[in-house]
Write a structure and sequence with these properties.
By secondary structure, this protein is an alpha+beta fold. It has 16 helices and 46 strands. The protein folds into 5 domains: 138 residues, Galactose-binding domain-like (Jelly Rolls), CATH 2.60.120; 138 residues, Galactose-binding domain-like (Jelly Rolls, Sandwich), CATH 2.60.120.260; 142 residues, Sandwich (Jelly Rolls); 81 residues, Immunoglobulins (Immunoglobulin-like), CATH 2.60.40; 274 residues, Alpha-Beta Barrel (TIM Barrel), CATH 3.20.20.80. An 8-stranded parallel barrel has the order 33-34-35-36-37-38-40-41, surrounded by 4 helices. Strands 1-4-9-6-7 form a 5-stranded antiparallel sheet, with no helix packed on it.
Length: 926
Amino acid sequence: MKRLTASSFARRLFKSNSDHAHSQSPKENRENTGSYDAVNIIHNHDFSEGLHLWRANCCSAFVVPAGSGYHKGITEDVGCSYAVVTDRKECWQGLEQDITSRVSAGCVYTISACVGVSGAFHGSTEVQATLRLVYQNSETSYLFISRKSVTEEGWQILEGSFSLSTMPNQAIFYLEGPSPGSDLLIKSVKITCPSFTDYESSRPTSSCTDDEKIIVNANFDDSLYSWSGRGCKVVCHDSMADANINPTSGKYFASATDRTQSWNGIQQDITGRVKRKQAYEMTAVVRVHGHNVTNADVRGTLWVQAADNLEQYIGIAKAQVTDKDWVQLQGKFLLNDSPSKAVIFLEGPPPGTDILLNSLVVNRAAKPPPPSPPVPENAVYGVNIITNTHLNNGTNGWFPLGDCTMSVKTGSPHIIPPMARDSLGAHERLSGRYIAVTNRTQTWMGPAQVITDKVKLYLTYQISAWVRVGRASGPQNVSVALGVDDEWVNGGQVEVSNDQWREIGGSFRIEKQAAKVMVYVQGPASGVDLMVAGLHIFPVDRRARFNHLKRQTEKIRKRDVILKFSGSDSGCLLGTPVRVRQKQNSFPFGSCICRTNIDNEDFNDFFVKNFNWAVFGNELKWYSTEAQQGNFNYRDADELLNFCYKNNIEVRGHCIFWEVESTVQAWIHSLNKNELMIAVQNRLSGLLTRFKGKFKHYDVNNEMMHGSYHQDRLGKEIWANMFKKAHELDPSAILFVNDYHVEDGCDTRSSPEKYIEHILDLQDQGAPVGGIGIQGHIDSPVGPIVCSALDKLSILGLPIWFTEVDVSSKNEHVRADDLEVMLREAFAHPAVEGVILWGFWELFMSREDAHLINAEGELNEAGKRYLALKQEWLSHAHGHTDDQGQYSFRGYHGSYEVEVVIASKKITKTFVVDKGDDALVISIDI
């Protein structure tokens, strides 16, 4: 694959649009160029779909439907839809559309727009077509296309052409120009490139041909030719186990036998048959066979060796395999660099268990067709789908799950729980009645309701209720759960003590049709009574929440700025043209990166352009830097650190320790208490002395809410001592706690309340905790629930960072919506000081279906949404100085560039807008 550029994005997407629009083949198009109708690269060009894909730039817009009789000053009968751009306070305000993915460098594009004007002006006013081009490092330029003098007499045709010598990171087409206060009317817009078909004929194909056999003898037709054992024997069979095991396809299969290690298996050398930066898919048909083993994990793995002899193991696929049937093992992989050797193999089952392989094929990974955005029919946001919530009809609509007893009593809260109030639509006060569940003999027993027909696919539902427990020996966990066919879905959890009504909140989403969906409340120990009041489940209106967050963002992330111009060349400054553009927002947006990522130039380009912070995935963790006692490996961390410094990327140190037992390397488990204490001290002094001053943050001890390995062995004070020693060794670093499920209401171990107690306890012991890390691995996020957690944690007065954000959905549009929820909630909250994504490139993330860029470098819908938000959070303004030589605007915090033109001379100056409540006055000498 070619090096990834914005142009390559455009060409791939442009090709797919062309295929959709024309049934002719590229060859047929070339042979019939005289009759070829060039493709309009403006989507929704005639506003027949309202304002879909169009955006009003700092003003308002609406579409006048055909035949409405509303002509906004146009004297002739138009007979079709058109857009009205109104509330314009500046001449540059207008209507725009992102055309980045539909233009390429070197092509000549022609524009034809049907435009009109209406408003309080005399004679005529000008309408202008412009391109805003955003380049690397957020440098922005404006390309004038054409201008037309327009009157209120009727529609005019604005025509022009443009060509791009180099491809920008983003290209925004927009119409602007009429004087402030007047409305811009747009009937249609057309941008075409007549030479487009020339590109079609030269576009290289990316599919593998039949003779590109990556796996030789994939079905064992030639016995074991090209196959070998990895630390064990391999045997070819036509059947085995008294003919009870036979190939599911072909005549033969192979077994890896006499396995004494879990990594033993069957392998094939594929050196030279796979290329860097190309995505491949492995499909294997496998099963296991052995005494006393009926199922086991089988993994597909790729071992690669670089030119400098460094080794890497790439996990491709993993599946639970039985001894009864053949199972398909499938997964994808990609190489960022060209290895000197590459071997693919199967491994995983315990020693003594045979791995059986019927076939193994590796092909170029197919590119799935782009998904459509899901559009739930008749979605009614904020409306409860639970029957008889107020219990006006006794327990009608409810049933007990299990052999327990339900009754209705009074005495519960009358108000909706706080997290639901902002997102629930019009609602009544609660009745004060609740369901009491007694005679519970299992933890899962409680009130239930079937909601199959009420749940719509792809909608995000919020859950809210009051819960309470009867007399118990200690705090009890209560949860709202959903049974979706055979799958259990967590709808929220809370810890409840005697005689307390507690709010429980959570969320869920269903993305495939289910035969049965049941909701139930469960959790307390058997014998403990459970009480539930006011259970509400309703789809959330994310757009309404986003509008609220935009208003919040305006307040906390922007500042009024007054540019005060002076100097010997200033003369009379009244009316001097001023153009301000923001080069970079100062809010930290970062991503997790790994050492192998930076071998891929395309990865590097996107990362450096779109992030200003980084965290290392594994390279700084103890099990990576000292896998064997006394053998240190800092090479990978050093290379990543150098890469970040070279590109002005700030770095978080993740992590010094990890408290979850399963993450602790084997040699540490063998240490006694004194040896472990010495090892801990050596880890602190070795790491923080070596990297002193190089990491802005450290996650001192990861996930202390979910593990206690070191504390169990070294005593309660060890956690605080880790912070104290780390601060002593590197006083410049901010020391963080870091944990997961803090913000989603689905884990009582790390609820905001428990997290606050944990931090206060550390501080009481003298630990210099400087920041709160919320990981942000979340499904179906709901804004008010996330915000509630942030509000609670903010009482500590410490900076909050989202440190490992990822959202997962197979549908890219849903994933984009989820990502937008998290980013907007973070950016709109005053206590949040940074957001780090836990990766962005497919196949290099810990969760599937969470990526922003597909394996071979194509931006998906989630990636587009991220870039759109980054662009939204940059301020641009232009106008003229007043009679005092000043120009005022309100802009996001960050670095800016201002251009003024005096006496035919353009002057450019830079300045920084930092945080502050009062207006920032910046004196600029010109």
